[in-house]
Amino acid sequence: MTTVVPVLLPEREAATYAGWFACLAEPMRVKLLHAVATSPRGLTVGALTEILGTSQSTCSHHVRKLAEVGFLHLRKEGTATVVTINQACCSGLPHAADAVMGLLAPRPCCPENLPEDVIVRALRDHDWDSVRRIYGEGIATGIATFETEVPSREALDAKWLPGHRWVAEIGGEVVGWTAAVPVSERECYRGVAETSVYTAESHRGRGVGKALMHKQVTEADAAGLWTLQTSIFTDNRASIALHQSAGYRTVGIRERIARRDGAWLDTVFLERRSPVDA
To answer: According to CATH, what is the number of the domain 11-100?
Structure first.
């Protein structure tokens, strides 16, 4: 068995980020930073004191600590001290969080250890009944899609990209499919597509999704699609893990994005950037 040794953050970066996070460990400073960040022209220490409902000495202390770390800029206007945000921290702080959580580390190209008995090939005309049946089985789980009825063959055929629709077979039986849809008709987004992956109920847990995902991303890379994206219900952990194994990263949570069966649901928005220059 090969032991995977994690790549550690450089000592200097770790110390810098620790200083940033330690400075923000005080709730008053978080509120103060937010107040300044949402005031483009800045605020005086006196105004901040009133907003935070604290004493001027306490406010000045927290302002000084945030300025020392680099979150704030201070300038004198007469007898008043004007506090403004350091715009660099608007990108630097999220970058630090991503670095610490490993989101900036190299991501895998595609799933490994593919099942030997799964064959993935291009979708053919006689596959549509199986594709729509598997789609219906996904709908029935309640965690695969906002759709409540299986779209018609004509509807799917019209929106799926011709060169990016694949089915998985085991022993000649279609047991899963994946497809990609263009996100926009605008020329600048010609290399961006939204993807879906479905596995037959009777064959889940056998690596079918892994084989389909491998085909999906490698063919997309070869064809010049530079971004693949997808939205997955937050409680569909298996699908999220499958996509992460193919180099997708979590962009964010889309809260109350749409309703299903009368209930508002959240989705995880993920995307994968091709390592190949498009």
So the answer is: 1.10.10.10
